[in-house]
Structure prediction request, 239 residues.
Amino acid sequence: MTRKSQSDKQRHKKPLFLLMTPLLFSCLCWTPALANGLEEQQLVEKARHTVESFMDDPNFTWFQGHVKDAKALLIIPQQLKAAFWVGVDGGSGVLVARDEQTGEWSEPAFYILGGLSFGFQFGGEASEVIILAMTQGAVQKLYASSFKLGGDASIAAGPYGAGAEGATSANLNADFLSFSRSKGVYAGVSLEGSIIYANDDSNEAYYGKKVRPVDILVTKSVKNKHSSGFRQAIMTATK
Prediction:
């Protein structure tokens, strides 16, 4: 092998993290493929139930009082975490963004959230997660194909429980605020270092053609009648 070919091969070699992450996410989040966007319709319906359950939970009073201030919402009905020395967490979800002019919420765009952690760890858990995008910069990040929470944008756990309504922590100035619970109980999942990916395959399956997040969230060039119940739940939560 020539020195040039060795150099080319080395230049195109990706870090182990980038090679492992998509495979681990796909294994963790995999469900049997369903035709005609049915799987995506079910995810949207689960996202509606997640929003409604958070709005009914007496421990999420701060969330209930401030969700209307968010510029976008990423709802993940089931964030899975499994660990055997290397921890893997991931989940599929939907994102909606508010039109600053009309106050209306967009159709849902599909995303994947996940990350890796290393160390002595075993076991698994499932959590519901809602992430509030609180700044315009946070919303702009969501239009990209992928970005890293805590690296490209700041994220903090949102206030929870008794006394949360009076929270004045500096954490509230973060680009994103995350709220999570496991089996109806506060989970406190750390999302620092997690990566958010636009799920192009699910977006295409749900809308019947290739679309990018900006087509769904900004230009609103596509619609799906099955999202009406979900969008109504968002409107009710943020009025």
Notes: The radius of gyration is 19 Å. The chain has eight helices and seven strands. The longest strand covers residues 72-97. Residues 77 and 128 are 5 Å apart (CA to CA).
